[in-house]
Amino acid sequence: MGHIIDHRVLVITGGSRGIGLATLNQFIKNNWRVVNLARKPCDVVGVTNIAIDLQHLSKAQEDLKQELSAELGESSVISLVHNAGVFINDNVAEQSAETARALFEINVVAPIILNQIVIPMMAEGSSIIYVGSTLAEKAVANCASYIASKHAVAGLMKATCQDLAGKGIHTCCVCPGVTETEMLKERCQQTPGLLDTLSKLSAYHRLIKPEELAELIWFCANHPVINGSMIHGNLGQVER
Ligand SMILES: NC(=O)c1ccc[n+]([C@@H]2O[C@H](COP(=O)([O-])OP(=O)(O)OC[C@H]3O[C@@H](n4cnc5c(N)ncnc54)[C@H](OP(=O)(O)O)[C@@H]3O)[C@@H](O)[C@H]2O)c1
Q: Out of 14, 23, 30, 198, which could bridge 84 as a Cys pair, Cβ 3.0 to 4.6 Å?
C-alpha cells in the first residue's frame, strides 16, 4: 500500500496562498506528495517548492522539465492542478495588449507549457484540473482580459478531454465563485463596500472558503466520471 501512495503526486501552481494553499493541504492530509510551483514557497511540511515565475515560464521550461522529472520519476499518478491566476480590472474599450498578454502568460500559456512537461510523466489514473471562474462561462463589465483568459482555460480543458481520450487521464474545470482569498481582498481594498456586495452574490450571502474549493478539487482529482466537465463551486449565484 505504501508503495502506491508514494507514487501519487499533486503538482499545483500557486500553492503559496489562497485556494492553492488550501488544496495542497487537502492532498497532504490524504497522503499525496506535493510539488508547489509558485514564486513564493509554502511552508507546509512535506511540500517540495519549486520557485518559478509563471509569467516567464517559456524561458525556464527546460530547467523545470529536469527538476520535475527528477522529482516525479518516469511515470506516476499525477494530479496537475492549474490553479495560479491573476485578476485585473480592464475594459474592452481601453484594453492594453501588453497587460492582457502578461495576464494570458500566467492564466493560459503557463498551463499549456506545463501540460507539455507533465503529461508524458502521467500514469493512468492521473488528472489535469483547471481552475476557471464563474467568469469562464459568462461576463460582467470591467474584467475583459480576465474573462477572455478564463474562457480560454475552459476551452483548453475541453480540448484536453478530447485529445487525451483513451489515455486514462481525466480533466475538468473547477469554477470558483467569490472566494475569501488574498486575491479577493486585494481586488476589494480600493472600493469600500465591494467585499460586502460580492459576498451577497452567492445565494448563501457569504464568501466561499478556500477549503470548500479544495474539497471540490480533491473530489475531481479522484473521480474520472467528471471528465470534460465545467464544475461550479459558487454556492449558487444570484443573477443581477
Ligand atoms: N478568489 C476568488 O474569488 C476567485 C474566483 C474565481 C476564480 N478564482 C481563481 O482561483 C485561482 C486561485 O485564486 P486565489 O483567489 O487563491 O488567488 P491568490 O490568493 O491571489 O493566489 C494566487 C496564487 O497564484 C500564484 N501566482 C500568481 N502569479 C504568479 C506567477 N507570476 N508565477 C507563479 N505563481 C503565481 C501566487 O503565488 P506567488 O505569489 O507565490 O507566485 C498565489 O499562490 C485563480 O486561478 C483565480 O483566477 C478565484
A: 14
